[in-house]
Amino acid sequence: MAKKNRSAPAKGLRGSKVGLALSLGSSALAVIRASKQVRRAKGSHDRLNTADAVAGMLPLITSAALVLRQLRGRRRENDPETA
């Protein structure tokens, strides 16, 4: 029996402009949520919680930057006059 690829529909959406925009939006919301966590940790003057919150933000920021780079690359592909 052949194994079904369940990620196929999601893969098509991920490569589309709408999928990239959704990914960017979710990354932005996650960064906002994590920044609130950093503020709460700094308010309690707990260095370990602050370090944990800052370390948790780094992958989110990187993810948002990668999605932005993909969107910019798509824009350059679609508009050859700006290249």
List keywords for this structure.
83 residues; mainly alpha; 3 helices; 0% strand; elongated
- The counted number of beta strands is 0
Number of helices: 3
Structural class: mainly alpha
Order of helices and strands: HHH
Determine the fraction of residues in helical runs and give it as a percent range: over 70%
- Poorly predicted runs: 5-10
Mean pLDDT: 77
Radius of gyration: 18 Å
Shape designation: elongated
- In angstroms, what separates the terminal alpha carbons? 49 Å
Strand content: under 5%
> What's the story with the biggest beta sheet?
none
Describe the structure.
The radius of gyration is 18 Å and the shape is elongated. It has helices at residues 8-15, 17-43, 47-78. The chain has 3 helices and no strands. Helix 1 (8-15) crosses helix 2 (17-43). By secondary structure, it is mainly α. The N and C termini lie far apart (49 Å). The longest helix has 32 residues, at 47-78.
Q: What is the compact description of this entry?
A:
By secondary structure, the chain is mainly α. It is built from three helices and no strands.
Question: Mind sketching the topology for me?
Answer:
Elements: H1 8-15, H2 17-43, H3 47-78
